Amino acid sequence: MNQLVGERISIATFKAQTTRHRIMGIVNTDDMQIVFSDTPGVLKPNYKLQESMLAFSESALQDADVLLYVTDVVENPEKNKDFLEKVQKMTIPVLLLINKIDETDQSKLGDIVEKWHALLPNAEILPISAKNKFGTDMLLKRIKELLPESPAYFDKDQLTDKPARFFVSEIIREKILLYYDKEIPYAVEVRVERFKETPRNIHINAVIYVERDSQKGIIIGHQGVALKKVSTEARKALEKFFDKSVFLETYVKVDKDWRSSQRELDSFGYNPE
User: Fold this and answer.
1) Strand runs (DSSP E) across the chain, as ranges?
2) Would you say 96 and 124 are in contact if contact means Cβ atoms under 8 Å apart?
3) How many Å apart are CA 87 and CA 120, to the nearest integer?
4) Which residues contact 165 (CB under 8 A, 6 or more apart)?
């Protein structure tokens, strides 16, 4: 979606489950508006957070005019059978995007295309490399051809449906995904407690929530070195995102129920309704 919108709307890392919310990216031209909706990857839920993530993914099936089903050259085509069955029954156009084709060769790619064609015979299959911008122009052209005409939903200068605070929490979470291993990134949520913007700078206070005291210690690190590193990298990314000086203060708190409590998840914005 970042390539299609032309702005960095969704965080992206090499780790699974990077995207947790449904995020809209809006492309405006003189005569057109396209609203892209980036959802979490499909997975079998093990706790309430993942149930909410799956609900975001399934909600896209209900209101999309064109479905972009994104896979890659290493994913097992049959791992999400239940979700695929729902896609098979859809009457809207389905574009199956096989991403990361730069990581395979032509013969293997041919086998992958055949497997997906057998699973989704009505889908139009497009091999792409989002990182290298290969096939993305062709994809955008095809989307324009398939979209029905309708009134614009958003203002012409709007890039997304999410507020500034959302992108602050996502950028901090991205740095945590990049710099910590094992279960730590998945046990973390970020809440922005203060966001004060002036014409020259932005002051931000953010709380990083974890589930256990041991995770809090890992996030902070010896003498606070780990947290300082994450905060510094997040501040640099935020300054680039907002094109302003950013003063960022981060704190770490323990909330043992946040991934399994519906009330907590609602407060973090994980309500697909």
Assistant:
1) 23-29, 32-38, 67-72, 94-99, 124-127, 189-197, 201-210, 245-254
2) yes
3) 8
4) 192, 195
Closest CA to 112 of 94, 122, 99: 99
3 state DSSP class of 56? helix
Q: 169 with 195: CB under 8 angstroms?
A: no
Give the model confidence (pLDDT) of 213-244 as tens digits. Answer: 999 999 999 999 999 999 999 999 999 999 99
Residue holding tokens 């997304």? Answer: 160
Q: For every residue of 2-16, which 3-state class applies, written as one string? A: HHHHCCCCCCCCCCC
Per-residue pLDDT reduced to its tens digit, 27-53: 998 888 999 999 888 878 888 999 998
Order of all β-strands in the sheet with 189-197: 189-197, 201-210, 245-254
Distance (Å, rounded) from C-alpha 40 to C-alpha 103? 23
Residue corresponding to tokens 């605070």: 165
Q: What is the pTM of this model?
A: 0.84
One-character DSSP codes across 228-246:
HHHHHHHHHHHHHHHTSEE
Which pair of structure tokens corresponds to residue 162?
Answer: 């999410």
AA letter at 105: D
- Per-residue burial over 55-92, b if 16 or more Cβ lie within 10 Å, else e, is bbbeebeeebebbbbbbbbebebeebeebbeebeebee
Instruction: From residue 78, give the alpha-carbon distance in Å to each of 22, 82, 197, 214.
Output: 23, 9, 47, 37
Helix (H, G, I), strand (E, B) or coil at 209: strand
Identify the sign of the CA torsion 122, 104, 129, 56.
Answer: positive
